[in-house]
Design brief:
InterPro entries: Cu-oxidase-like_N (IPR011707), Cu-oxidase_C (IPR011706), Cu-oxidase_fam (IPR045087), Cu_oxidase_CS (IPR033138), Cu_oxidase_Cu_BS (IPR002355), Cupredoxin (IPR008972). With 511 residues, the chain is an all-beta fold. 3% of the residues lie in helices and 36% in strands. It has three domains: 33-198, Sandwich (Immunoglobulin-like), CATH 2.60.40.420; 216-355, Cupredoxins -  blue copper proteins (Immunoglobulin-like, Sandwich), CATH 2.60.40; 372-492, Sandwich (Immunoglobulin-like), CATH 2.60.40.
């Protein structure tokens, strides 16, 4: 279960960014972790206080550690380079990068480059694009960073469990002609379980390595077990303030690594949403006192000018138990001003991304001719072992793939028929343009994304060009839902993979 918080475990990890949800854990004895885990207490350089790795050759190690979430809670976690979130990788557009991942965990892992159009062989999906990296092994990912923006990386091996335990980090590709800002902060949202023994399901004795489809479904509806919300791996007063000086231009890169949506409110300042899922928006207009809703897997870059001295908050709105502790202070250096007050229940409108920014023609339109059209009905059903989540009535691997060939123009209609569940649908290896919502065309900036959140009853039409040959997952990023069946693939008929999965290898668990 995600990030099970064991208050009795001691040690600390300087971390920066966890966020909103989930379950993770066990299958091996954590009782000796204090001996196995090095304490990480160094102050890490960068505006975000997380370790930042730059250059064309990067080294990551997947290993166990202990995460101090607040003054009461420490828990055993899985990490990339000893912190949650893991080291931020920052590269330049155009660089060919090599990332060496060494696995020092007691189980297999991978890295999936969430939102990034890497070659299929580098996508990190075990049993689909590669074998999971076994304990003690090292694997090198290599690709060219062609598209600038804010992305993240995470394990795709038993991902509902491993991301929940902390196996994620951020991946920033700086554009060749970057518009400079004075401060650049990355904030990763996540959720954790402080007392799994008291949650409504008993995960304590479960060996997740034996869990298959539907395994996570006992918890898929009751997200109340996630009672601690974090920003950069910290909660409440443990979250480090964001320092600014009057007149500075500030960028916040907001990443949701959890399994719940979070509505964020920036107090005291106008801001612009300059990018979503790493892709820039056309002429974004200033917003004030509106909530930015960030679904699992999504990223939003916002920018504002520090023109209102004092101490302000960026806070999560809602009524979940962990909501009040998902807030970070914005502090002006050397300036007196008003001191802000939290108000997580204030009734504010949510920004409508379908009408935000300047309308102009994107690459695709609703009425042009498409080579492939696919309808994806997202549903919920009772399976023999509990709740399952379906695409067109089937669970993975029985779901019908989206069959394409290189160069095809593809239109997908997504409809959420689940009565109560949100489904943030994520497409690997491609960006898609959102064309309509509930039958109405998009009226704002062209909206280019890789993760799209559907509330119950909602319908979206999206389009993309099949320009990255391979076999690519298209799945719900509430990974409980993916592990319980809500996965399909985009398969290229003209692609031949060099990777041949061994049918007898049971270690690959792509969901």
């Amino acid at each position: 279960m995600k990030k099970l918080l064991f208050g009795t475990v001691l040690a600390g990890v300087v971390a920066i960014g966890a966020a909103c949800s989930n379950d993770s854990m066990q299958g091996h004895d954590m009782s000796n972790m204090k001996n196995k885990t090095s304490e990480v207490s160094k102050q890490l350089p960068s505006e975000t206080n997380m370790e930042v790795l730059t250059g064309k050759e990067i080294h990551l190690t997947a290993k166990e550690a202990l995460l101090q979430i607040n003054d009461k809670v420490k828990l055993p976690v899985y990490t990339y380079n000893g912190s949650v979130p893991g080291a931020q990788i920052r590269v330049k557009q155009g660089d060919t990068v090599k990332i060496h991942l060494k696995n020092e965990l007691p189980e297999p892992v991978t890295i999936h480059w969430h939102g990034y159009p890497v070659p299929n062989s580098q996508d990190g999906v075990p049993g689909v694009t590669m074998n999971a990296i076994k304990p003690g092994e090292t694997f090198t990912y290599e690709f060219t960073a062609t598209v600038p923006g804010t992305y993240w990386y995470h394990s795709h091996q038993e991902s509902a469990k491993q991301i929940d335990k902390g196996l994620y980090g951020t991946f920033i590709v700086e554009p060749r002609n970057e518009e400079k800002v004075d401060r650049d902060y990355t904030l990763v949202l996540d959720e954790w379980v402080s007392n799994p023994d008291e949650s409504n399901m008993d995960m304590s004795g479960m060996d997740h390595s034996q869990m298959g489809h539907g395994s996570m479904n006992s918890m898929s509806h009751d997200m109340s077990m996630y009672d601690i919300f974090t920003i950069n791996g910290k909660s409440g007063s443990a979250i480090e303030p964001l320092k600014v000086k009057k007149g500075e231009k500030v960028r916040l890169r907001l990443v949701n690594a959890g399994y719940m949506s979070h509505k964020l409110h920036l107090h005291g300042h106008d801001f612009k949403i300059v990018a979503t899922d790493g892709q820039p928006l056309k002429d974004p207009q200033p917003i004030k006192d509106e909530l930015l809703n960030i679904a699992p897997g999504e990223r939003y870059d916002i920018e504002f000018t520090a023109n209102n001295p004092g101490e302000w908050l960026l806070e999560c709105h809602g009524d979940m138990k962990g909501t009040d502790d998902m807030k970070v202070k914005l502090q002006y250096e050397g300036e007196k001003g008003s001191t802000d007050k939290a108000n997580a229940t204030e009734n504010l409108p949510v920004v409508d991304m379908t009408s935000y920014g300047k309308q102009e023609l994107g690459e695709f339109t609703l009425d042009q001719k498409y080579d492939v059209e696919y309808t994806m009905d997202l549903g919920t059903a009772m399976g023999k072992d509990g709740m399952v989540f379906t695409i067109n009535g089937k669970t993975y691997p029985e779901t019908a793939p989206v069959n394409v060939k290189t160069g095809d123009l593809v239109k997908v209609k997504l409809v959420n028929h689940s009565p109560t569940d949100l489904h943030p649908m994520h497409l690997h290896g491609h960006f898609f343009q959102v064309l309509s919502k509930n039958g109405k065309p998009i009226t704002g900036s062209p909206l280019i994304k890789d993760t799209l959140n559907l509330k119950p009853g909602e319908e979206y039409v999206v389009a993309f060009k099949a320009d990255n040959p391979g076999n690519w997952m298209f799945h719900c990023h509430d990974l409980h839902h993916a592990s319980a069946g809500m996965v399909t693939e985009v398969t290229y008929k003209d692609y031949k993979s060099d990777y041949k999965p061994d049918p007898n290898d049971t270690t690959n668990k792509p969901e």
